[in-house]
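Table S4 entry, ATPase.
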Amino acid sequence: MELKRKLYSTLIEWKKENGKTALLIEGARRVGKTTTALEFAKNEYKSYVLIDFSIASNEMKSLFTKYASSLDDFFFFISTLTNTTLHHRDTLIIFDEVQLFPKARQLIKHLVKDNRYDYIETGSLLSIKQNVKDILIPSEERTMIMHPLDFEEFCMATGHIQLFSIIKKHFVDLKPLGPIHSQVMKLYRQYLLVGGMPQAVLEFIHSNDYTKVDQVKRDILRLYRNDIAKYAKGYESKVLQIFDEIPAQLSKHEKKFKLASISKDARFREYEDAFMWLDEAMLTNACFNADDPQVGLALYKDRLTLKLYMADTGLLISHAYDSTSKMHIKIAEKIVSDQLEANHGMLFENIVAQALRVNNKKLYFYSRIDQENSQNTMEIDFLINDPYNPSKIAPIEVKSSKRYKTSSLNKFKSKFKSRIGQSFLLHTKDLAIKDNIYYLPIYMVSFL
């Protein structure tokens, strides 16, 4: 079974440009980059060539240097070595795991200019220094980021695409879903638990067994740890320390990442490269404090004050909880039935961060502690540009429990009222509007 990915429609539009650029699909390991590129190649081209640089022969690799200035010979040997007929403007050549052989990436400039065929590159860790050392990054590259499956893609995979269309219409009309809200929340909790890694989703569809799904996710986490040990040269121990600390940090009421939890002597400047490595590897989503919140949030980013979310909430659950099958079955049951007493807040915040990143939003929050005036003490989970008025900002609060207060949101609205457009509160209940706050069911974060 192939999962339908929304990126596919973007690939169709790119193909219509007739080879003006090569396409670089970047993303974390195991998010489905190669699978999507191959499906596209098989469906949309007369022939295709896949060169996987994790297993490519020395003979294949030598073509990129030996015949770089003689493309007729280059294509002749590509065709011969892969036993594939190349068709003018109807063949796609895929450079898979291109970060492992940067010379192939450098040749893209000349291949695109030649314009005989189309080119897709896939890779992870593409910004890491050792993967771009001594090469000229081609300007003829267009980059697309591939994330884990979002909720719409999960609905497509599990046969609920019509339900997602209903959700979207109710969001546009700002009307509660009524009787079907509980059905959607159950599906969303399944998505929360399974996550968006394609292998995990396919296992869930095939077996409906959360223990087997958990094993798939733990295999992916093990792969990530191996990548850290292999590629984070010089500061791998710091990257692993941060990576392993994420669940503990998110489980606290105060979710800002505190290096003191790793070592009382730790300083940010010593760990900055490690945070950056995790971000470039797309294993985490960093959310920075905007200390003077207004339009142009990046201008007011405090890079020393951040929250660190996992890029996939399903992986966070497997990263956070005990690996014994009985324990995980119990946790799975509690999450799906909305009976998990502790740490539900960190899961909801993480999945909101994940959804906002899928929508190409940088992550910001607001936090201030004032010992002298409690009216100035407040924390807003996320800040975005107001989708209804781009000249304003929109605060987002996330509530996982059925009973909650809105004191921070009310204080924030009062203090920054001239800068604020619409305010949002994401919760487990149905849609409602009160005091100029949109109370949205958490699954509607997909539309923000």
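Residues 310 and 428 are 21 Å apart (CA to CA).
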